[in-house]
Amino acid sequence: MDKKYTPLAPAQHGYFVLRVNEDEGLVVADFRTPVIAWVLDEKNRPHPVTPQEVETCDGEGTSILAPDGSVYEMNWHGEEGDLGDWWPGFDSWLKSQQIRVAGAYANYLTEKAMRAKKAAKP
Questions:
Q1: Helix, strand, coil shares, percent, the chain, to 5
Q2: CA distance 94 to 54
Q3: Which residues are within 8 A (CB) of 65 and not within 5 positions of it... i.e. 6 or more apart?
Q4: pLDDT over 80 at 16, yes or no
Q5: Cβ-based burial of 44 (10 A; exposed 0-12, middle 13-18, buried ≥19)
């Protein structure tokens, strides 16, 4: 079922949705997409609207760069949801993403090695 949204307001200039692109455990690029408006979902929780889509803020959350330079995560999974983590600036957010991506890749490599070792046993 598609979510239903109610328009809330145009976005103040300077809000961006942040994303990273990763390759083999490294952050290789970051993307900033402008937030052009805000909408409310059926539980009255705000979601940013970019030129491409309404960001659902479900699952892993959506990182938002605010006009003051701080970054916060909107994460509405479950019944309550929360604003998730907060970083004082873009650089600290990017560092946290580099750590997250490196950790996830290390876990992937460990699991892959364990499966290969298990498959090699007679």
A1: 25, 35, 40
A2: 23
A3: 15, 16, 17, 18, 32, 71, 90, 93
A4: yes
A5: exposed
Phi, psi angles (nearest 5°) of residue 75? -140, 105
Could you write out the DSSP letters of every residue in 18-73? Answer: EEEEEETTEEEEEEEEE--EEEE-TTS-EEEE-SS-B----TT-EEEE-TTS-EEE
- 9: three-class secondary structure by DSSP: strand
The answer to whether the CB of 92 falls within 8 A of the CB of 83 is no
Tokens linked to 97: 């993403």
Residues 6+ apart with CB under 8 A from 106: 25
**Angle at 13 (CA atoms; ends 12, 16), nearest 5 degrees:** 100
**50-101 pLDDT per residue, tens:** 999 888 876 667 889 999 999 988 877 655 556 678 899 999 988 888 888 8
**pTM of the full predicted structure?**
0.74
Q: What is the pLDDT of residue 89?
A: 92
